C-alpha cells in the first residue's frame, strides 16, 4: 500500500527539532490502516519516537489553540525541543500552540524590530516572536493566557538568556492590551550591556577599560503583535494608541 506524503503533516527529525512527534492527518481511506502506517513510520525512521493522528483542527475545541489527537504508535511523550532563529524552545506539544510552518513569518516580523525598541506581544505562545526579539535587544512584554504556554515561555526566556529584555505575563490579552501601555509608562527598565572584560583587562588595570553601556527601555511601545486572528480586531480597539510611539 502506498500513502501520499501530503497526508502526513510536519517533517520529523529535521535539524530544527528534537523528538518531534510524527504528526499525521490521514485521509478517510487510510484510517483503517492507521496503526499499520504508524508502525511502519516508526520502524523505518530511527528519529521518530512517537506517531500521533490529529482528531480535530487546531483551535476547533479551545481558546488555547491546542488540538486533540490519538496516539498511534511509540511513546506517549509529546515533550519536544525546537529551534527557531537560533533560540531553543521546550514544550509539551499537546498543551501549547506551535506551528513550525510559521517560522518564516516569525522571522519576517522580528526583522522589523530595532534593538532598543519596546514590543508588546499579547498572545506570545511559547515565545517565537518575543524570545528572538529579546535576543536582538528589544524590550518585550510577552503575554499568553494559557498557563502551559506561559510556563514554556518562562523556560525559553531563561534558556536563551533574555530575562533582562523579555518579561512574561499570564493574563487575558484583552486586559493585558488595555493596561500594558499605561504600565510601561510607569516602569523604568535599564539594562547594562557592557561587554565582559577580558582576563588581561581584569589583571592589568593600565589596559583600556571597556566603557559602560546602559540601554533604557522606551516608555511607549513601538510595536504590538496580536497573533490571534479571531479577536485581533476587537483587541486593537483596546490599545491606548495615544500612549504608543508613532513610527
Ligand atoms: C495562534 S497562537 C499564536 C502563538 C504565538 N504567537 C506563535 O506564533 O506561536 C494564539 C495564542 O493566543 C493564546 N490566547 C488565546 N486566547 C487568549 C487570550 N484571551 N489572551 C491571551 N492569549 C490568548 C493561545 O494560548 C495561543 O498561544
Automatic annotation (TrEMBL):
Superkingdom of source: Eukaryota
PROSITE patterns, A to Z: SAM_MT_TRM5_TYW2 (PS51684)
Keywords on record: Cytoplasm, Methyltransferase, S-adenosyl-L-methionine, Transferase, tRNA processing
Pfam family, any one: TRM5-TYW2_MTfase
Domain SAM-dependent methyltransferase TRM5/TYW2-type, first and last residues per copy: 13-247
PANTHER family documented for this protein: TRNA (GUANINE(37)-N1)-METHYLTRANSFERASE, TRNA METHYLTRANSFERASE
Name of the protein described by the UniProt record: SAM-dependent methyltransferase TRM5/TYW2-type domain-containing protein
